[in-house]
Amino acid sequence: MSVGAKLGIGFMRALAHLPLPVVRGMGAVMGRILHTVAAPRRHVVDTNLALCFPNTSSAQRRRIARETFVHVAQAWLDRSWLWHAPRDVVEQRLNLHGALHEFDGTTPTIVFAPHFCGLDAGGTALSLAVRRPWTSIFTPQRNAFINDWLEVGRTRFHGEVQVFDRTAGVKPIVSGLRKGGLLYLLPDMNFGPQESIFVPFYGVQAATVPSLSRFARLGRAKIVPVLSRLTKTGYDIEVLSAWQNFPTDDVVADTALMNTRLEGYIDTMPSQYYWVHRRFKTRPDGEPTVY
């Protein structure tokens, strides 16, 4: 297993030195192949799109599904240059803009980073531009070699980053926020019934972790969304203005609002969202599986 991981990482290191159009072309081919041969995962994407966009034609949904596989593959290969290319190359390919003033000062801040394909590019761009202590939460990989590679890549440009396992608990995360740090949070996936509440996502009840509201309340933090969009020249990373009147005392309403705003972000680039994830795997009691 480690031999395969080492070979894969070696391939990514080599890929980092190729021109971006070559890397993107390889990703496009890989994505089209995966869309064809990875039938179980294609079924997940097709089901997600049918549930979330019932009024969109089947032809449009098929197009979005194909593009999703391409974007996922391209973003995966882009980790080669994000994590191994020289700094000046990385900076040239990342266009960070928007409400950057939200990161000035020491106000505890949670970066709401939805699962768009450009997620790692967004994290890298922020780590280059924002010199404040960072905290992030991750799900450990089964292969320790891959796990280390992911962690080193995601922290390569910032010396003050703490990366916590999801099982580490809330205390160190809240402590970092209250000291004026930033939390890079990705709460829009299905982590099972133990951690979740059911709120609508595109009108479908979805098990959703209420961590955005709870961390904001515990850490006395503001919420700043960051949206990462894959482009021909690299990535466009937009920092949006901080949410107003969030959190409230109603964690369910807060979490539902998070999903509603996420829907608005997705609608601007539907094929770049991570539809390969089984977002509706956990169902309310009595409801059948959708996959």
SS strand fraction:
15-25%
Q: What is the quaternary state of this protein?
A: single chain
Structural class: alpha/beta
The amount of helix comes to: 40-55%
Q: Low-confidence parts lasting 5 or more residues at pLDDT below 50?
A: none
> Kindly, what is the distance between the CA atoms of the first and last residues, rounded to a whole number of angstroms?
29 Å
Helix count from the secondary structure assignment: 10
Question: How many strands?
Answer: 9
| Overall outline | globular
Give the topology string: H per helix, E per strand: HHHHHEEHEHEHEEEHEEH
Rg over alpha carbons:
19 Å
Main-sheet strand order equals: 1-9-8-2-5-3-4
Average pLDDT, rounded to a whole number, is 92
Task: Please provide a written account of the structure.
By secondary structure, the protein is of the alpha/beta class. Helices cover 47% and strands 17% of the residues. The strands form two sheets. The chain has a seven-stranded mixed beta sheet with strand order 1-9-8-2-5-3-4, with helices on both faces. Strands 6-7 form a two-stranded antiparallel ribbon. Strand 3, helix 7 and strand 4 form a beta-alpha-beta unit. The radius of gyration is 19 Å and the shape is globular. The model has no long low-confidence stretch (mean pLDDT 92).
